[in-house]
Amino acid sequence: MVKKKKKIVVEPFDDIKIVGICTHLEDYKLAWHINKLLNINLVKYSDIVNEDGLEFSFYLYDGGENCNTFNLVEIVNAEGRWVNFTPPTDYLIVIRNFINDENLSDLLNKIKSIQDVQFAYLVDLDMNSKIDALLEDIEMHEMELVKG
Question: pTM of the prediction?
Answer without folding.
Answer: 0.86
